[in-house]
Design a protein that fits this description.
Radius of gyration: 18 Å
Helix content: 40-55%
Oligomer: single chain
CATH superfamily: NAD(P)-binding Rossmann-like Domain
Number of helices: 8
Distance between the termini: 25 Å
Structural class: alpha/beta
Strand content: 15-25%
CATH topology: Rossmann fold
Number of strands: 9
C-alpha cells in the first residue's frame, strides 16, 4: 500500500513551484498546532511553496507562528499576524499591517470559521451571533479592508471558503446559514468589484480529513470515503489546490463562482449513495 503523504506540502503531489512568485497572499484562520493541517494552514503552506509571501492571520498568535515556522522550514516566506477579525478595527489593522510589511496585497483567502453550537433549536442567540460574526461579517471586514490594497495593485483575487452545509441539510443551524450567506456575499462582491479587476469566488469543501473534521475514528474516515462519488477521502490539500487555481492568473476570467470541492457529494441523492455506504456499515457493525 502506498505511503500516505499527509504532511508533505501539496499532499498527494509536490506543491513547490512558481505560480504565485512575487505575490502577497493573506489567509485567515491559517494557524495550526499539530501535524495534520487544517484548510487554512494547508492553503498558506501551498501558496507559499508556490512563491507567494503569505500572511497567516489567526486569533491565536502561537498557532499563527506554528504555521509560519512550517512554511519557513520548507523554504517559503511568511508573516504571522494575530487579530480578532470580528472586530472591525482589528481586522483593518491586520490587513494594513500585512500589506505594509509585504509591500503589496494580491490575494485574500477568507478561511476563518467556527461551527457553533449545533442546530437551530440547540443554539443560543449569543452562539448564533458569534458564528455569523466570524463566518460572514469578519470575511466582509477583511475583504473591505483589503479592497484599497488590491485596487492599488491593479486588481486581485478574493477566495471565500464556504461548506456543503450551505447546500445540504446537516442540522448545523447557524453554521450552514452563515456559509450560505458567505456564498451570497461572494456574488455581490464579484459584481461590485468587477470593474476594479478584483475577482471574488467561493469554494465549497465537502467532508475533509482535517483537525476540525477528524471525528469518528477509522469508521468516520471510512464513511467519509463512502459518502462521495470517488470513494476517496479528501484532505485540506484538496481544497488548497483549488484555492491556488483561483488565486493565480490561470483563473483570470473566472469570478462570481461557487465551486464545490467535495468529490461529487452534493451531486448525489441519499438513495443513490446508500448502496455504497450500507455494505461498509454492515462490515463495521459485525
Amino acid at each position: 500500500m502506498p505511503r500516505e503523504r499527509t504532511f508533505d506540502v501539496g499532499g498527494h503531489t509536490d506543491g513547490h513551484g512558481t505560480r504565485l512568485l512575487g505575490k502577497a497572499v493573506l489567509v485567515t484562520g491559517a494557524g495550526s498546532a499539530g501535524g495534520l493541517p487544517g484548510t487554512g494552514a494547508a492553503t498558506a503552506m501551498l501558496l507559499a511553496a508556490q512563491g507567494a509571501t503569505v500572511g497567516i492571520l489567526d486569533i491565536d498568535a502561537d498557532r499563527a507562528d506554528h504555521t509560519r515556522k512550517r512554511i519557513e522550514g520548507s523554504g517559503g516566506r511568511a508573516l504571522a499576524l494575530a487579530a480578532d477579525i470580528t472586530d472591525e478595527a482589528s481586522a483593518r489593522d491586520a490587513v494594513d499591517e500585512f500589506a505594509d510589511r509585504a509591500e503589496r496585497l494580491d490575494v485574500v483567502v477568507n478561511n476563518a470559521g467556527i461551527s457553533g453550537e449545533g442546530g437551530v433549536m440547540g443554539s443560543s442567540r449569543a452562539g448564533w451571533d458569534q458564528v455569523f460574526a466570524l463566518n460572514v461579517t469578519a470575511a466582509m471586514q477583511v475583504a473591505r479592508a483589503a479592497h484599497p490594497h488590491l485596487v492599488r495593485g491593479g486588481g486581485g483575487s478574493v477566495v471565500n471558503i464556504s461548506s456543503i452545509a450551505a447546500l445540504r441539510g446537516f442540522g448545523s443551524g447557524a453554521y450552514g446559514a452563515s456559509k450560505g450567506a458567505l456564498q451570497s456575499l461572494t456574488t455581490d462582491l464579484a459584481y461590485t468589484w468587477g470593474p476594479d479587476h478584483i475577482r471574488v469566488n467561493c469554494l465549497v469543501p465537502g467532508h475533509l480529513h482535517t483537525p476540525i473534521g477528524d471525528h469518528g475514528g477509522e469508521e468516520g474516515r471510512l464513511l467519509r470515503r463512502s459518502a462521495n462519488l470517488l470513494g476517496i477521502e479528501g484532505t485540506a490539500w484538496d481544497l488548497a489546490w483549488a484555492v491556488l487555481f483561483l488565486a493565480g492568473e490561470e483563473s483570470r476570467w473566472i469570478t462570481g463562482t461557487v465551486l464545490p470541492v467535495d468529490a461529487g457529494t452534493t451531486t448525489a441523492t441519499v438513495l443513490g449513495m446508500l448502496p455504497r455506504v450500507a455494505p461498509h456499515r454492515k462490515d463495521t457493525d459485525e
